[in-house]
Design goal:
By secondary structure, the protein is an all-beta fold. It has no helices and ten strands.
Length: 115
């Protein structure tokens, strides 16, 4: 059974940092592009950034220069380093393949940024 388990969220103040992890199990994801998504209350889920199988990354304009995606294929894990957090970054953060696979959505990890 394939599982993606996100962790590392929490409550922080604006300007602080968090590092999220996404641990995959059930199969290797080393050949997949992986993405971090987020969903804020009352909003649609959005793609925050992507990392390809060879490590190239793309981030959304809203987080560019603040968020960095990385992966460790040996650990089947993807990371999201979030710096200079803003209240508008408050959301539940998820990882999934890109394009996403419906059955792979996990519970996500809550990130709350206070002003």
């Amino acid at each position: 059974q394939v599982q993606l388990v996100e962790s590392g969220g929490g409550l922080v103040q604006a300007g602080e940092s968090l590092r999220l992890s996404c641990a995959a199990s059930g199969r290797t994801f080393s050949i997949n592009a992986m993405g971090w998504y987020r969903q804020a209350p009352g909003k649609q889920r959005e793609l925050v950034g992507v990392i390809t199988s060879v490590g190239s990354t793309i981030t959304a304009n809203s987080v560019k220069g603040r968020f960095t995606i990385s992966r460790d294929n040996a650990k089947n894990t993807v990371y999201l380093q979030m710096n200079s957090l803003k209240p508008e970054d408050t959301a539940v953060y998820y990882c999934n393949t890109v394009p996403n696979i419906r059955n792979y959505w996990g519970q996500g990890t809550q990130v709350t940024v206070s002003s």
